[in-house]
Structures are given as structure tokens and as C-alpha cells.
Specification:
The complex is a heterodimer of chains A (204) and B (100). By secondary structure, chain A is mostly helical. Helices cover 58% and strands 0% of the residues of chain A. Chain B has one domain. The chains are: A mainly alpha (204), B mainly alpha (100).
Chain lengths: 204, 100
């Protein structure tokens, strides 16, 4: 069960509207390596994980990702509030505007709506934690690219915070993976699925 | 009230939480209803007391209720698990997915 906290994890206070920048940052809401995908990935993978540590890390990082979704949405809201049609056209935001006006919709920057096809829940702890490590790196790269495209200090301050969270999550997933691999039977040299158990242990 | 067992107390918390949720939704759409607001606060007080009793005896519901001695936040069973589903933390995992 979740409870909403009426606060952002980190403050978002942007002075200048910028439809062009909103059009790229939106990928971290609904793109292939965005916060929506991160939250869904971790919160679905956790159910069948074989260790308490992995369940804990996935639950708590997944919950934090929901908060990051809200922060990215807050950036988009502030970057686009009050834009005139002329500004929307000049900023290349018209293709988004025609379908969503200034509503917040999870889509990639190139227009692909959010799709769960960009994530997996494989039912194999090693495979899933490996994916999670890659996901954090890919999200970090996306934030790096946003910083390359943005010169707004108000925006960049928040993006740097979100980027750093990807780095921290990568560390925690690395520890969860290491603990999982260390708990494998010595004969499981190749780290085959430690999560799928059909006979012993599942039900008593 | 006598000390309730874990399942009964959890059931009580679920009931009170659900009443609270219903009142939240109602009040979101009817913020001027004083009768509902009073009922909300009465429910909230009972919920806080029930949660404190549960966390003191049976483990944390949020990390704010975690032990001062040990990080018992990750202890099973998680809400979707049955008692027998809790992985044995000490048993190694083998390539057939069974534990030794």
C-alpha cells in the first residue's frame, strides 16, 4: 500500500518557460529509460525475488522512482505553463500540443508513448538485477544528455540531483546483485535462475 | 483493550485505513462537510494508535517504525507472501532453483 506525501523529494523552481527543453526532458517521464519505466520495472520485479535484501531495495527504489516521476512532471509543468501558441510553434512543441495541449503525458521525446515493452520482469533475480543496473546507467546517460542540451541553471540543478540518484541506485543494485550471487550454490557456476523453485521450499 | 494478535490487529489497521481512504476521497470532492471531517479525525486517531501498537509488537509498517537495534524493515513476510513463502536467508540457491 502506498501513501502520498505532499512534497517533492527535491525542490523544483524554474523561472523561465522553455518548450524546446520540455520537449526533450519529457523522455525522462515516458521514454525508454525514464522514471515511469523505472518505477514499473522495480515494483513489478520485486514480488518473486528470492532474498529479503533484493525485495527491500526494489521496493524502496521503486517507490523513490514514483517521486522522480513527479519531479520530472513538475519540471515539465513549470517549463510549459502559460506558453502562447507562437512560443509553442517556435519551440517545436506544436506536435505535442496538438494532442495534449499543456497536459502532462508520458511519452518519449521522439513521440513514442510510454510502453512497457521497454522493460522486463524476467522472473530471474540475476537477469533482473543486471537489467536494473543497465537501466540506472541508461537513465544517467539520458540526464547527461539533457545537461548537454540545457543551459538553464534552474533546470540543471534539479537534473543533476536526479542524475546523482541514478548513480546511487546503481550502487545499491550492484550490492543486491553481489549478495544474490554470493548466496548461490557453489555448483551454480553460471548463475542460472535462483528465483524459480518448483519443488522444495516453495510451499510447506 | 486486551493485546490483539498480529492478524487481528493488522485487520483492524486495514479497516481503519480503508475508512480513512474513503473519507479522503469524499472530502476531496466535498471539502466543506464538517461531519465527514470530524469522522476523518476520529478515524485517524484510532489508526495512529493501532499502528503504534502493531509496530511496537510485530515490526514496521513504514521505515518510521523500524527497530533501533536492527534493520527489520526487510524482514518477511512481505504483504504478498504467505508465511511458508519466506525465503530461508541462510540456504544457498542452486541451479535447479531449489535450496539444499
Amino acid at each position: 500500500m502506498w501513501i502520498y506525501e505532499k512534497k517533492l523529494q527535491y525542490p523544483v523552481k524554474i523561472k523561465n518557460p522553455n518548450p524546446k527543453l520540455a520537449g526533450v526532458i519529457i523522455s525522462q517521464l515516458g521514454g525508454p529509460d525514464g522514471e515511469t519505466g523505472a518505477a514499473l520495472r522495480y515494483l513489478n520485479q520485486r514480488y518473486t525475488m528470492p532474498s529479503a535484501e533484493a525485495i527491500g531495495v526494489l521496493t524502496d527504489i521503486g517507490s523513490e522512482e514514483l517521486g522522480h516521476q513527479e519531479m520530472v512532471a513538475a519540471i515539465l509543468y513549470q517549463l510549459t505553463k502559460g506558453l502562447t501558441p507562437a512560443e509553442i510553434k517556435a519551440g517545436g512543441f506544436d506536435k505535442y500540443f496538438v494532442d495534449h495541449t499543456l497536459g502532462i503525458y508520458p511519452t518519449a521525446a521522439a513521440g513514442m508513448p510510454y510502453t512497457a515493452a521497454s522493460m522486463q520482469s524476467k522472473g530471474d533475480a540475476v537477469a533482473d538485477l543486471m537489467e536494473d543496473l543497465a537501466a540506472e546507467q541508461k537513465a544517467r546517460v539520458t540526464y547527461d544528455n539533457i545537461l548537454r542540451l540545457s543551459d538553464d541553471p534552474d533546470v540543471n540543478d534539479v537534473i543533476r540531483f536526479l542524475r546523482q540518484r541514478e548513480v546511487v541506485h546503481f550502487q545499491r543494485f550492484g550490492e543486491a546483485l553481489r549478495r544474490t550471487q554470493e548466496s548461490l550454490n557453489q555448483k551454480n557456476y553460471y548463475a542460472f535462475n535462483p528465483e524459480y523453485r518448483v519443488n522444495k521450499g516453495a510451499r510447506k | 483493550m486486551d493485546k490483539m494478535n498480529k492478524d487481528a490487529l493488522l485487520h483492524r489497521i486495514q479497516e481503519l485505513s480503508f475508512v480513512k481512504t474513503e473519507l479522503e476521497l469524499f472530502l476531496d470532492a466535498a471539502p466543506d462537510n464538517k461531519q465527514a471531517l470530524d469522522y476523518f479525525h476520529k478515524t485517524l486517531d484510532a489508526l495512529i494508535a493501532a499502528r503504534e501498537e502493531y509496530e511496537a509488537n510485530y515490526g514496521p509498517i513504514t521505515t518510521a517504525g523500524v527497530s533501533r537495534n536492527r534493520w527489520n524493515w526487510i524482514d518477511g513476510p512481505w504483504p504478498w507472501q504467505r508465511e511458508g513463502d519466506v525465503p530461508d536467508a541462510d540456504a544457498p540457491l542452486n541451479c535447479r532453483g531449489t535450496r539444499e
